[in-house]
């Protein structure tokens, strides 16, 4: 799908002008605020104004690489539904469904299994109008009841199975920078050349983090990333889990344990770009801290499993058997394509290890498929 760069270049210039006007008025803004405006501004933000996913866009995601990804996650959802006791009404929700490819592939597989699609309502949490439209087109098949929502809090009540692939990494991060024995908010100002530049904000009163940094003898300039919006996702899921069974599978790129490092990155047309140039025109993301996500889930009374490497997850969910089945009806060229695409999903040198999955459930549910006893 072609990106709409030329169409939005004027608006994104307006976004630069607006951000600069705000900085001139109020002083430096936090990186978190900068990232939020760049990604989510209702008129000129990256997601609300573009269709960035796929070969013709800025980046490609696992469901766009191979149909097997969505199909296997559909199987995961089916087994979870059964472990909930096959409730007669269940919400199959996806957070940030992109072009709708994952859900379309999952539903195609789920329709062949008894019961689930008669009981399930699909609910998509998506804020981007162009992506909602792409999702409507991808999921136009008659028979599926689909609703769209701006926020998790608006999802219909009842038992729920949630899938989120490359959703958390798009949520804004805070960066704290360690300078002369204090943590400072990393901020953005207007540099001497008139462009955006990083600066240290005033020191922060975060006593526990300060003590940790001292204990670890962090070098000056160390950066710690925090993602309040990801904690808000967990809190919203936990609130639902009090009333009805909940299982969620969160897949993204990131690290297993919290640690220092600057992972903010910008991508444009499949190449790295400067995160402070072209606000609203490039994709800004940062690694997901799975350790922090898991801690947050457990602190909110949920059970958390993993994270498990994406390659291992897909293999345990039956990737080889699915591939063999697809290859039976394929030409040699199609077989080669299927093999290389799935290889990309599981290969440790490609997406197999950097991408990880965290499973979260409400209390009282069995460990979800592929997460055995890894709580
Ligand atoms: N899951 C898809 C798309 C990943 S890109 C895939 O794997 O291909 C991130 C997705 O999250 C996009 O659909 C984007 O519009 C959506 N998104 C980003 N921030 C959001 C927010 N705050 N609320 C809802 N959706 C959001």
What descriptors fit this protein?
39% helix; 375 residues; 8-stranded mixed β-sheet; alpha/beta; binds S-adenosyl-L-homocysteine; Rossmann fold; 23% strand; disordered N terminus
Fold blueprint:
Blueprint: H1 5-26, E1 29-30, H2 31-40, H3 46-49, H4 62-65, H5 67-83, E2 90-95, H6 101-110, H7 116-119, E3 120-125, H8 129-138, E4 146-149, E5 160-165, E6 174-179, E7 182-190, E8 196-203, H9 207-215, E9 223-226, H10 228-241, E10 246-255, E11 265-268, E12 271-273, E13 283-285, E14 288-289, H11 290-299, E15 303-309, H12 310-316, H13 319-328, H14 332-346, E16 355-361
Parallel strand pairs: 2-3, 2-5, 3-4, 5-10, 10-14
Antiparallel strand pairs: 1-7, 6-7, 6-9, 7-8, 10-16, 11-12, 11-13, 15-16
Helix pairs in contact: 5-6, 13-14
The structure holds S-adenosyl-L-homocysteine (SAH).
Brief characterization of the structure:
With 375 residues, the protein is of the alpha/beta class. Helix content is 39%, strand content 23%. It has a domain at 62-171 and 227-361: Rossmann fold.
Explain what this protein looks like in three dimensions:
The protein is of the alpha/beta class and 375 residues long. The protein has a domain at 62-171 and 227-361: Rossmann fold, CATH 3.40.50. The protein contains 14 helices and 16 strands. It has helices at residues 5-26, 31-40, 46-49, 62-65, 67-83, 101-110, 116-119, 129-138, 207-215, 228-241, 290-299, 310-316, 319-328, 332-346; strands at 29-30, 90-95, 120-125, 146-149, 160-165, 174-179, 182-190, 196-203, 223-226, 246-255, 265-268, 271-273, 283-285, 288-289, 303-309, 355-361. Strands 2, 3, 4, 5, 10, 14, 15 and 16 form an eight-stranded mixed sheet that branches. Strand 6 (174-179) and strand 7 form a beta hairpin. The longest helix has 22 residues, at 5-26. S-adenosyl-L-homocysteine is lined by residues 40, 47, 53, 61, 63-64, 96-98, 102, 125-128, 131, 165-167, 170. S-adenosyl-L-homocysteine (SAH) binds at residues 40, 47, 53, 61, 63-64, 96-98, 102, 125-128, 131, 165-167, 170.
């Amino acid at each position: 799908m072609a990106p709409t760069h030329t169409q939005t270049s004027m608006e994104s210039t307006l976004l630069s002008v607006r951000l600069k006007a705000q900085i001139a008025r109020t002083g430096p803004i936090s990186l978190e605020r900068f990232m939020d405006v760049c990604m989510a501004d209702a008129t000129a933000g990256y997601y609300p104004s573009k269709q960035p996913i796929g070969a013709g866009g800025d980046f490609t995601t696992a469901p766009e690489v191979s149909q097997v990804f969505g199909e296997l996650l559909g199987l995961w959802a089916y087994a979870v539904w059964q472990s909930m006791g096959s409730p007669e009404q269940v919400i199959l929700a996806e957070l940030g469904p992109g072009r709708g490819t994952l859900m379309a592939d999952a539903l195609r597989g789920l329709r062949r299994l008894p019961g689930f699609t008669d009981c399930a309502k699909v609910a998509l949490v998506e804020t981007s109008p162009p992506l909602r439209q792409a999702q409507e087109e991808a999921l136009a098949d008659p028979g599926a009841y689909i609703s769209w929502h701006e926020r998790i809090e608006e999802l219909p009540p009842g038992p729920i199975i949630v899938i989120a692939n490359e959703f958390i990494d798009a949520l804004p991060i805070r960066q704290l920078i360690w300078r002369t024995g204090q943590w400072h908010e990393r901020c953005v100002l207007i540099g001497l050349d008139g462009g955006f530049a990083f600066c240290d904000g005033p020191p922060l009163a975060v006593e526990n983090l300060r003590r940790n940094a001292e204990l670890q003898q962090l070098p000056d300039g160390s950066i710690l990333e925090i993602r309040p919006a990801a904690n808000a996702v967990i809190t919203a899921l936990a609130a639902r889990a009090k009333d009805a069974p909940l299982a969620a599978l969160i897949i993204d790129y990131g690290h297993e344990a919290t640690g220092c490092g600057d992972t903010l990155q910008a991508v444009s047309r499949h190449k790295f770009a400067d995160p402070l140039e072209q606000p609203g025109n490039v994709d800004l993301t940062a690694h997901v801290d799975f350790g922090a996500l898991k801690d947050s889930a457990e602190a909110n009374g949920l059970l958390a499993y993993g994270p498990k490497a994406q390659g291992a997850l897909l293999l345990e969910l039956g990737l080889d058997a699915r591939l063999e089945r697809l290859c039976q009806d394929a030409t040699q060229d199609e077989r080669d394509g299927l093999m290389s695409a799935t290889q990309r999903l599981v290969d440790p040198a490609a997406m197999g290890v950097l991408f990880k999955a965290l499973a979260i459930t409400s209390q009282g549910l069995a460990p979800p498929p592929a997460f055995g006893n890894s709580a």
